[in-house]
Amino acid sequence: MQTTRTRPSSGKRSTRKAARPAAKAAARVQVKAAPKAAAKPAPKAAASRPAPAPRPAAGQRRYTQTSLGSLSQVKGWNALNTRLELKGMGITVAEYPAGKGYEHTHYHSEQEEVYLLASGRGQMVVDDEVIDLREGDIVRVGPPARRALRSHPSSPSVWVMIGATPGLYKENDYTELENEPARFDI
């Protein structure tokens, strides 16, 4: 089932299941009725896929690469938006000494954020709740929540922080080119 997100008047998000289109349900019934040898799902119709983007001209790139080196060696605040030419999200990697971090809480009108504790131990305050974090923990914070973070008093930390505006991300916005294997041997 497809999942759609709605925002009730309270401002909180809720999730509801959307009904499957009748055509998909009919196709599923046909697959169940077919013999086991033909039970493979049919490939998506060519009309539903966007045309592949043309390959870039020689010397043109459609990606941007940068490096911070080892995340455990990162120092200070590293906003990557400009370096990566980002247009739909923000990414920052920040290092804080033990017990240091944001001095004040903040919130956003629309932007949700994801915080990944890449190394060390850390703490977040989200709407007056203190959350203790260990390396590898990830926290998603909704726009109106007041939040701040810091290294745990006994450990320095490195954080990866990603922010984006809800509603623009499309979960299945890709076309897998099954007849075009990746060529890592180039």
Plain-language structure description:
The protein is mostly beta strands and 186 residues long. Among the domains are: 3-38, no CATH class; 71-164, Sandwich (Jelly Rolls). It is built from 1 helix and 9 strands. The protein has one helix at residues 22-33; strands at 3-6, 14-17, 77-79, 90-96, 112-126, 129-134, 138-141, 147-151, 157-164. Strands 3, 4, 5, 6, 7, 8 and 9 form a 7-stranded antiparallel beta sheet that branches. A two-stranded antiparallel sheet has the order 1-2. The longest helix has 12 residues, at 22-33. 9% of the residues are buried.
User: Roughly what fraction of the amino acids lie in strands?
Assistant: 25-35%
CATH topology-level name of the domain at 71-164 = Jelly Rolls
Sum up the overall morphology in one term: globular
The low-confidence parts are: 1-38
Q: Can you tell me the CATH superfamily of the domain at 71-164?
A: Jelly Rolls
Provide the CATH top-level class of the domain at 71-164.
Answer: Mainly Beta
The total strand number stands at 9
C-alpha Rg, in Å? 22 Å
CATH architecture assignment of the domain at 71-164:
Sandwich
Question: What structural class is derived from the secondary structure elements?
Answer: mainly beta
Q: Termini separation (Å)?
A: 40 Å
Number of helices: 1
**Helix and strand element order:** EEHEEEEEEE
Main sheet: strands, sense, barrel: 7 strands, antiparallel
Query: Which percent bin holds the helix content?
Result: under 10%
List its traits.
single chain; 186 residues; mainly beta; Jelly Rolls; 7-stranded antiparallel beta sheet; 1 helix; 6% helix; 30% strand; globular; disordered N terminus
